[in-house]
Amino acid sequence: MDEDSLTKSLEIFNKNQASENKRSGLLRRDMLYNIFMQSPAMLCILKGPEHTFVLANDPYRKLIGNRNPVGQTLREALPELEGQGFYEILDNVYATGEPFTGKEMPASLYRGGKMDQVYINLNYQPFVDSHDKIEGIFVFAYDVTEQVVARKKIKESQLKYRNLIFGLPVALYTCDADGYIQLYNDAAVRLWGRSPEIGKDLWCGSWKIFRTSGEPLSLDECPMAVVLKEGRISNMEIVIQRPDGSKRHVVPYPQAIYDTNGNITGATSTLVDITEQVKTRRQMEQVADMIERLYMNAPAFICTLKGPEHIFELVNPEYQRMYGSRQLLGKKIIDAIPELISQGIIEKLDKVYQTGEPYVVTEMLLYLSRDEGKEPEPTYLNFSYQPMYDPDKNISGILVFGYEVTNQVLAKMEGEENLKLILESLPQITSTSSANGTNIYFNKFFFEYSGLSKEEATVNGWNAILHPKEIDEVLSQWEQCKKNGEDFYKEIRLKRKSDGVYRWHISQITAIKNSKGEITQWIASATDIHEQKMKEQKKDEFLSIASHELKTPLTSVKAYLQLLELSLDKNNEKASSFTKKAILSVDRLKDLIAELLDVSKIQNGRLNLNISNFNFNEMVDEAIENIQYNSPKHSFIKTGVIAELVNGDKERLQQVIINLLSNAVKYSPDSKDIFINAYVKNDQLTVSVKDNGIGISENNFSKIFERYYRVEGQDIHFQGLGIGLFISMDIIRRHNGKLWVESQPGKGSTFYFTLPLKKDK
Amino acid sequence: MQKKCILIYDDDLEILTVCKAILDYDDYRVETLANCENILQDIMDIQPDIILMDLWIPKIGGENAVNLMHENEDTKHIPVILFSANDEIEKISKKINANGYLRKPFDISTFKETIENNIL
From CA A508, how far away is CA A518, in angstroms rounded? Predict the structure, then answer.
């Protein structure tokens, strides 16, 4: 018998009690009494306003700790109920006649020497006497303590789990079967950026959600809704936007909750925030994207060839464009582009695959069929083959990267063609060669002059017509030029086919450089200077003969004069002095002839030095002695002694000193002292010659070293050809020294020259 | 004692005359020749103690003449002094292994010294 049916039966019993009492006899009353007393429900009857116990069955007595309350008022029987509300409820029922039903009412009862907490379902039913006046209260109670305690324990354990779950750092929430949010934890609040209203917010606590594509997602499409509506689990990544606008990337892990009949009663969902991972992934994607863009849109052609047979694995659009609609992907290169077979390309690929050494080439001419069925056409390419490695570091394929440069090359060739047209028409021997010196082109005149065939020219080039005496020197100088990137300039002899004459040429090889300053080619030319050279040689020869021929009679004159001097009467001083003067004039004439010859030699770069180690000091002393003899009026004051031997051309250096000293004499007509000083410092010899003469104005400092410069505009006429300093300058330069002047007009001049001293020679 | 002999080759007669005049002051026998084609025979005939050789002399030139006599066992011991107005005389004299050189025009003292220093 359950609680409800008992209550019902008691109500019926209660309602009919009065008439029953009247109609039934004692037997029935006994029967009822027995039922009352034996009922498993707790029953008692309270009478009067003080609720005096008239009857209490055993279960009731058990409830109150086996006390017998009969004959006692409620307050007397159960004083511990004071303050628990029961007295007041019963007073109210008695006063108003309104019955009272209470469920799981807690009550503290004194049982077995202690207070016990019990939970009771109870019913207070008033009953009336024959005058319809309330006589008492029928109490029906049912002890539900066990059920309540058990339920409370479940609730407590649920709470524990709840706290545990809700304290988790992972966002988690639950919805009921209709999708109303029931529970959510702090992490969910942080993730959502808001607290949804329980029982009101549907599906998801987010403010707004989006697909990863950025497309808005309605809340009833979220994985929680999907699982509740369809039972299907979706872990679709979504983007949650918080009310503050910030966004988080989230993967939900929804899980439906089923009852024992397999119906969905709700669902939980865990929301995993993957925003940071997404950021990293985004960055990687961006890189990948860039590579993809480069690969797809680069103006460069890119492809990868896999394996030893070079099978097209990837081909970017630019690469494909080169071959039109021809099928490349998945094919071996020799099948896809068979025209490459005879062009040396497959061998290069094989080599890269075998050796791992990259191959880079510029402006390579390949004949490629630019579309299915088309004739191969010339195509110029800059490209590289780079080996690709598998994770085990074995070569797995080749990355091809390059540009087509056909238009540029053709444009350049057109430019070169124009250049060639010009070169062709030149009456000069002209050729071009590559940066490393390989002959590329010879102009028409080259062939005309040399009589060489194209093959001979390409193989031997200029060497075939160079003079045997010059070939070694030319080649070594040319090597030097190539090494240093310097232009070549030299007078050479080239054999003319028509008469077999080695004709003199000025040859020049000029480096052509690109914008980066790299040499792209060399242009060599030779201009025929044979006639000039011959004329010059004739002039040299003439000068040489002239000086010789002039010197020969001078030799006789001088010798005769000296003989005359010797044979003169010692007392004839006048005659003796005349003779001496004549001899001096002969010497001057000799020097002038020598100077003329020197100038001619300097002009032709043929002033040769006769290098030896010599005593510099002695040489200077000799020079002074020489000058002193011819300039008895001047005093030469020498300071400084050069202890070491000097390496150089003694005669030529003496010529310089004599030139400087005689100039000092010449331009110091009114002062008599000439100072000559020499010292060595830091492996350099410096010599100075100072006079107190007329001096030189600064704007003439450089002019005085020029050829045929003569001091002009002076009252006095100075002797000389005006070539002494020009020759001295050349001699000093040839000794790698310097010659210069310091001077002030009217205060005299100081000429300096320096010579680097070579050690150990 | 026999006079020492100086053989002078020069195509300029004036030079030959003046040289002879200078050396006549001293006690030398002076022989002069205006060409050097027969240098070996000349030496055999004259038996000089020193030779002064002009560089520009018909027809084979002084350089070749000196080389010729140097190649000959009977003549190579005779001292040779190059004797020229040529600028390169020092160089050439070294090249052909001459015993010395004399630049034209010369000083008669230098002329004499050079001969004295080199004569056999």
Answer: 19
The upper half-sphere exposure of residue A60, i.e. CA atoms within 13 Å in the direction of its Cβ, equals 24
Question: How many CB atoms lie under 10 A from the CB of residue B29?
Answer: 15
A248-252, A509-513, A631-635, A756-760: the lowest-pLDDT one: A756-760
Among the partner-chain residues A555, A566, A597, the one whose CB lies closest to the CB of B105 is A555
Evaluate whether A725 touches A701 at the Cβ level (below 8 Å).
no
Chain B CB within 8 Å of residue A590 CB? yes
> What is the reported pLDDT for A4?
54
Termini Cα distance of chain B = 14
Q: How far is B14 from chain A (nearest CA, A)?
A: 6
**In angstroms, rounded to a whole number, what is the distance separating the alpha carbons of residues B16 and B9?**
8
| Contact assessment for residue A410 and residue A391, using Cβ atoms and an 8 Å cutoff | no
| Apex A750 CA angle, A745 and A754, nearest 5 | 145
B27 touches chain A (CB under 8 A): no
Measured between CA atoms, the residue of chain B closest to residue A556 is: B15
Q: Is B22 on the interface with A (CB under 8 A)?
A: yes
Q: What is the DSSP string of B10-79?
A: -S-HHHHHHHHHHHHTTTEEEEEES--TTHHHHHHHH--SEEEEESS-TTTHHHHHHHHHHHSTTTTTS-
A-chain residues within 8 Å CB-CB of B56? 548
Contact A556 B14 (CB under 8 A): yes
**Taking the complete model, does pTM exceed 0.80, yes or no?**
no
CA distance A590 to chain B (A): 8
Q: State the complex-level ipTM.
A: 0.89
* Distance separating alpha carbons of residues A388 and A303, to the nearest angstrom: 12
Q: Does A566 touch chain B (CB under 8 A)?
A: yes
DSSP string, A628-682: HHH-TTSEEEEE----SEEEEEHHHHHHHHHHHHHHHHHT-TT--EEEEEEEEET
The distance in angstroms from the start CA to the end CA of chain A is 140
Query: Among A543, A544, A551, A555, which would you mutate to test the B interface (most chain B Cβ atoms within 10 Å of its Cβ)?
Result: A555
Contact B104 A555 (CB under 8 A): yes
Give the model's confidence band at A14: pLDDT under 50 very low, under 70 low, under 90 confident, else very high. low
pLDDT in tens, A358-405: 998 888 888 899 998 888 888 888 898 988 888 888 898 898 888 888
Q: Are B105 and A557 within 8 A, CB to CB?
A: yes
Top mean pLDDT of A11-25, A185-199, A462-476 is at: A462-476
Distance of residue B41 Cα from the nearest chain A Cα, in angstroms: 27
pLDDT over threshold 50, residue A761? no
Taking CB atoms and an 8 Å cutoff, what residues of chain A touch B105?
551, 554-555, 557-559, 586-587, 590
A596 phi-psi bin (left φ>0, alpha ψ -120 to 50, beta other):
alpha
Q: Which of the four pLDDT bands, split at 50, 70 and 90, describes residue A674?
A: very high
A–B CB contacts, 8 A cutoff, strictly below = 61
Q: Which amino acid is at A397?
A: G
Rounded Cα gap, residues A594 and A592, in angstroms: 5
pLDDT tens-digit series, residues A600-653: 777 777 777 888 899 999 999 999 998 888 888 899 999 988 888 899 999 899
Report the pLDDT value the prediction gives residue A716, as an integer from 0 to 100: 60
**Closest chain A residue to B105 measured between Cα atoms?**
A555
Mean pLDDT, chain A, rounded, equals 84
Tell whether A553 is within 8 A of chain B (Cβ).
Answer: yes
